[in-house]
Write a structure and sequence with these properties.
SH3 type barrels, rod-shaped, 5 strands, alpha+beta
Length: about 140
Amino acid sequence: MGKYDDLLRLPHPVSKSHPPMPLMDRAAQFSPFAALTGYEDVLREAARLTDEKIDLGDADAETLNARAALLLERLAEHPEVTVTYFVPDERKAGGRYVSATGRIQKFRVAEQEIELEDGQTIPLHQILSLESDLF
């Protein structure tokens, strides 16, 4: 028999003047001492999925260039187009693919971008596909 075994059988002391503290409040007492502050955010960011950028093959790149040339020829008509393009992630490798539909306002060759009527600019090197009634 151990030196303090008699203490194990004693009832838990309960204060007559103070009500028991709720468990949430008890846990909150120790939150300022969290050793891994920000760890949850790091885990959430690591779990967030991104897509890899697809490299177009030669045939797909030729098709895309031909479609872009046709749109450039018909620019005065402001053709409607659906552009699927890659948006790089700001925090980690990869990104996501986005589709935008609208009429082409400008085709900036020097800046290598397309501007839609709503003001959205799309870099040409990020475009995966172009869809239009013209082709």
